[in-house]
Design brief:
There is one protein chain. Helix 2 (54-63) packs parallel to helix 3 (80-89) and helix 6 (174-185) crosses helix 8. Helix content is 37%, strand content 22%. It has two domains: 2-141, Rossmann fold, CATH 3.40.50.2300; 148-242, Arc Repressor Mutant, subunit A (Orthogonal Bundle), CATH 1.10.10. Strand 9 (162-165) and strand 10 (168-170) form a beta hairpin. By secondary structure, the chain is α/β, with parallel strands linked by helices. It has eight helices and twelve strands. It has a six-stranded parallel sheet, with helices on both faces. Strands 7-8-9-10 form a four-stranded antiparallel sheet, with helices on one face. The protein has a two-stranded antiparallel sheet with strand order 11-12. The chain is elongated.
Length: 246
């Protein structure tokens, strides 16, 4: 899934094709505000793409798949309302949260009529922004999403965000939970390093870094190290696969 956060004031296919970690497009011209929102969202486990004006936001929103858009009104080059309207004209159905300092009822009505799905007034509590993003994601995916994933003696409760191995709870950080969810949804399939990078990091991500190997290593340490048999396997030169080998 993906989330577009735009601030101007600042058919079911193969399981392999699904993105589990939400990617966020942040369109924000104020560097300080953008930095604050990006840092908070990344700490919540989201991958974040950032654009500094409406035109760049429109390009990314039209060419990349995102799950939610959070759009304010006063962006340079192309304002938030025009951006939403153009996305809708191009048949982009990404849910939109409007983020704005404007409090008048007419402004809210105009934003929602342009194609927005929710409206959040500045200043706002960051926790409320995250809650509204998650609510739109649940609304969009509720009908098709399972609440529990199981591979061998490994269980993941997606709703409660709990993981258990052989009945023991495993404490995971948000990125670790998202990576494990991706592997479990594709159990038995080989997932390449490139695929993981595209799902979990933004479009400016450096492909030469060893962050994928480091994340897999930490996940293995929690999921496999203290148990009888490993579930995460390396396919040398290809990628990784999560499966129970008999």
């Amino acid at each position: 899934m993906t989330i577009i956060v735009m601030s101007p004031d600042y058919p079911p296919g193969e399981v392999l094709e699904r993105r589990v970690t939400m990617r966020i497009l942040l369109v924000e011209d104020d560097k300080r505000t953008a930095s604050f929102i990006m840092k908070g969202l990344r700490q919540e486990g989201f991958a974040v793409d950032c654009a500094a004006d409406g035109e760049e936001g429109l390009h990314l929103g039209s060419t990349e798949a995102y799950d939610v858009a959070v759009v304010d009104i006063m962006l340079p080059k192309l304002d938030g309302i025009e951006l939403i309207e153009e996305l809708r004209r191009r048949k982009v159905s990404t849910p939109v949260i409007i983020l704005s300092a404007r409090t008048a009822v007419d402004d809210r009505v105009k934003g929602l009529q342009s194609g927005g799905d929710d409206y959040l007034v500045k200043p706002f509590a960051f926790s409320e922004l995250v809650a509204r993003v998650q609510a739109l994601i649940r609304r969009a995916s509720f009908a098709s999403e399972p609440s529990m994933l199981t591979v061998g003696d490994l269980r993941m409760d997606i709703v409660r965000r709990k993981v258990y191995r052989a009945g023991q709870e495993v404490d995971l950080q948000p990125k670790e939970f998202a990576l494990l969810e991706y592997l479990m949804r594709n159990a038995g399939r080989v997932i390449s390093k490139t695929m993981i990078m595209e799902h979990f990091w933004d479009y400016n991500f450096d492909p030469q870094t060893n962050v994928v190997e480091a994340r897999i290593c930490r996940l293995r340490d929690k999921i496999d190290r203290h148990f009888n048999h490993p579930l995460i396997h390396t396919m040398r030169g290809v990628g990784y696969v999560l499966e129970e080998k008999k």
